[in-house]
Amino acid sequence: MRQDGTADTTPDPPRVPEVASAGTTEVSGQNGGLGGARAPGGPAASEGAKDPTGGSRDAGEPEAAEASAGLHNGLKQRHMTLIALGGVIGAGLFVGSGVVIGETGPISIVSFLLAGGLAILVMRMLGEMAVARPAVGSFYAYARLSLGPWGGFTIGWLYWYFWVNVVALEAVTGATILHAWLPGIDLWVISLCLMVLLTVVNLFSVKSFGEFEYWFASLKIAAIVVFLVLGLAFVVGLWPGAHADAGNLTEHGGFAPKGLGPALTSVIPAVGFFTGAEIAALAAAESTEPRRAVARATHSVVLRVLLFYVGSIFLIVAIVPWNSKSIGDGPYVAALQQIGIPAAADVMRLIILVAVLSALNAGLYSASRIVFALTRNGDAPRGLTRLSGNGVPRRAILLATVLGYVSVVFAYVSPDTVFSFIVHSYGAVALFVYLLVALSQVRLRRRLEREDPGALTLKMWGYPYLSWFTVAAMAVVILAMAFLPDTRMDFVASTLTLVVVLGAYAIRRRRGRT
């Protein structure tokens, strides 16, 4: 479908041939050059291939189109633009932000600004690497290239585990929302139906994923923009019956009613709300213009964070007293009801459902693509490499859904034990991934400057100082989780997940498969 709703008759781009054969291209770890890709059993390709960025490209290092390794380049620029814009708008913004507001007060604006700043820095670092070296698996390939095989293995499986759990949680959340409208149907039935629906979407083609995500993102963005317009009109007194008043920012105990400490500790959960911003870099390998797509996503992340998160949180605390009970029940609903929008609760329930379905859709896509990338270096069973006629890694998708189904079952069979552990066990996993992304950029940037400076067309600001600051800040956020009562369980369970992944790598290495 086009943006105007008419049928899109543009044929799919032709399938891109694989580099060597699926699963044989290997990105070198600590010893090779920046290219280092080779086909086992054959000599490395000639060196000095021309890189489209203007610099030289190492042998075996595929260009953007070739980097798809058999995946179709079915994502158009409009798909990538909306995936980038809508990637950070999830249920966490619409619902979870109320918890942060209730724990901090109006100064929650600062909490989201700090958390968003970290997300912006990590995305800039990832963008630098993705523009310089478009690759299947994105940060998995960069971690393997810069940190070595252990880095790629760890970041890949952690990211996969994160999204598999998100799939299950979003299916349960979506079922809970729909159950209010369909009380006669069991929650577990609705959960499984949602998973089956979006599994079929992902199995069909990457273009179908892109179309669904395009419209999901369009609705989310439209909802946020409408909220920003209505909220601003209300605050400045342009709304009928309203007068300019932002007293809620300083009344009810002041701007920081609980002090500076809660505002800083609330950065920890707030950082998690920005997870999803990196999907555009992961999806770039299946777009027609990967470098352009990543560059746009990287540049727009500042606007997304400042406008969608910080802007909307500012309006919420300006419209509704921060200590109002309605804030905890749903901050956007509370603000819309204060403005006087009829049926605000139902409208927001629908928008939250769209956000949940978008996360479920993106979760299946992300989990399947990262495990597909893992197969390319033997970090996952090579049987998962097989593609359908539409260039879709169906086995990788089904692997994610099978574990998602298991988690959904536990959500209803053992919600207080097994499912509770699953929820806690991925709480800090995304932060581990972001930390490894930051470390990868620090090392890869040095190698790019030495071996291929022409590829650095999009650079991290203030390197190396701002890069190391980002590494330190992410480390502080993770360590702080261990000392806060509300996040300690997440830290312990997530650390256990990390230990299991590192143990799996040690076993793999001992078997001589690295």
UniProtKB/TrEMBL annotation:
InterPro entries: AA-permease/SLC12A_dom, Amino_acid_permease_CS. The chain crosses the membrane at residues 82-101, 107-127, 139-160, 180-204, 216-239, 259-280, 301-322, 350-375, 396-413, 419-442, 463-485, 491-507. Pfam families: AA_permease (PF00324). Gene3D superfamilies: Amino acid/polyamine transporter I. Keywords: Amino-acid transport, Membrane, Transmembrane, Transmembrane helix, Transport. Residues 30-39 have a biased composition (Gly residues). It is a multi-pass membrane protein. It is found in: Membrane. It comes from the Bacteria. The keyword Transmembrane helix applies. Residues 1-68 are annotated as: Disordered. Residues 79-507 form the Amino acid permease/ SLC12A domain. PANTHER family: GABA PERMEASE, GAMMA-AMINOBUTYRIC ACID PERMEASE. This is Amino acid permease.
